[in-house]
Amino acid sequence: MKKTLIAHSPDADDIFMYYAIKFGWVDMKDTHFDNIAKDIQTLNEDALNGVYDIVAISFALYPHIKSEYAPLRTAVSFGEGYGPKVIKRKGERLKRNFKVALSGEHTTNAMLFRIAYPEARVTYMNFLDIEQAVIDGDVHAGVLIHESILTYANELEVEREMWDIWQELAGKELPLPLGGMAIRRSLPLTKSIEYENTLTKAVQVARDHKDRLSKMLLERDLVRIDAQTLDKYLELYANDESITLSAIQYEAINKLFEIGYKHGFYDTPVDIKDYLIPTEYTELRNS
Q1: Is 140 annotated as catalytic?
Q2: Mean of the per-residue pLDDT values for the chain?
Q3: For the domain 2-78+177-286, what is the CATH superfamily, name and number?
Q4: Which of 20, 100, 153, 163 could form a cystine bridge with 25, CB 3.0-4.6 A?
Q5: b/e map of 131-163 (b: 16 or more CB within 10 Å)?
Q6: Residue tagged active-site, from 8, 64, 106, 146
Q7: Cα separation of 59 and 44, whole Å?
Q8: Superfamily name with CATH number, domain 85-170
Q9: Class of residue 260 by CB neighbours under 10 A (exposed 0-12, middle 13-18, buried 19+)
Q10: Which percentage of the chain shows pLDDT scores above 70?
């Protein structure tokens, strides 16, 4: 039986979307799935270095790995009126060149932040350390991601919502593309299609059994938040729109790539649909 490792972040939405496989509710013939959890910037760097066959990434990274990886249509996280938050200590006024902590150079929030605040002095750190760095005064501000957007300390306040920055840059109301999954292009095409179908089914099954799966994750201490926060968080980032990419989500991803290209983050324009796994291959092959 082939062992397949899926690399994802330790935040609750990624764990939720994967664990229907881990708990044996979804499987794939002749394949044993295992997982590893790392912070999102480490995963981005691993994707740049081609470490894993299937890996979670920030959408903003994808144009840098398009030759080696195909984007998966499933296990995606978008903001819809919400997203990462620029936070600071309460009452503090930020100067133009304030020092800010971001969760990684290749994250979506980092690209959008750097476009919106070109004079800010950026430092990168693990997303779990950002809140404390702001509280301790090591930085003037930080961009919170994952569950911390719901649980940050009372001595902090929101300077600006990343959602608002995104809407201004996009020029229209589109969902904010945050993260998804990518699969190595060198894998056999039929196998890649099978992986994508299996992962899509896993996210669907997780959604269909949300309450039961959430309870199991909490009982096993697999998530860092309480039941009420988990329920709210999953509705933000592991919802029914996470199962498979929609037309408006494709549009949003391409707008993100367009913005990145315009501001010099990418060398060439990218259309996400040009790089998807051609799922029609299975039908053509069997016709």
Answers
A1: no
A2: 95
A3: Periplasmic binding protein-like II (3.40.190.10)
A4: 20
A5: bebbbeeebbbbbbbbbbbbebeeebeebbbbb
A6: 146
A7: 10
A8: Periplasmic binding protein-like II (3.40.190.10)
A9: buried
A10: 98
Element (DSSP H or E) covering residue 146: none
Q: What is the location of CATH 3.40.190.10 in the chain?
A: 2-78+177-286, 85-170
Token reading at 256:
């993100």
| pLDDT score, position 287 | 47
C-beta of residue 4 within 8 angstroms of C-beta of residue 31: yes
Query: 223 vs 15, 80, 85, 127, CA distance in Å?
Result: 8, 23, 21, 15
Q: Which of 176, 162, 197 is nearest to 281 (CA)?
A: 197
- 180 touches 56 (CB < 8 A): yes
CA distance 201 to 90: 44
Taking the C-alpha atoms of residue 194 and residue 62, their distance in angstroms, rounded to an integer, is 21
Question: Cα separation of 149 and 154, whole Å?
Answer: 12
How far is C-alpha 181 from the geometric centre of its chain's CA atoms?
A: 8
Instruction: Name the residue among 83, 146, 144, 141 with its Cα closest to residue 117.
Output: 141
What is the average pLDDT across 35-41?
A: 94
Tokens read off for 242: 């996470």
170 backbone φψ class: left, alpha, beta (φ>0; ψ -120 to 50):
alpha
Q: Could you tell me whether strands 99-102 and 121-124 are parallel, antiparallel, or unpaired per DSSP bridges?
A: parallel
* Per-residue pLDDT reduced to its tens digit, 155-176: 999 999 999 999 999 999 999 9
Q: In a 3-state reduction of DSSP, which class is residue 174?
A: coil
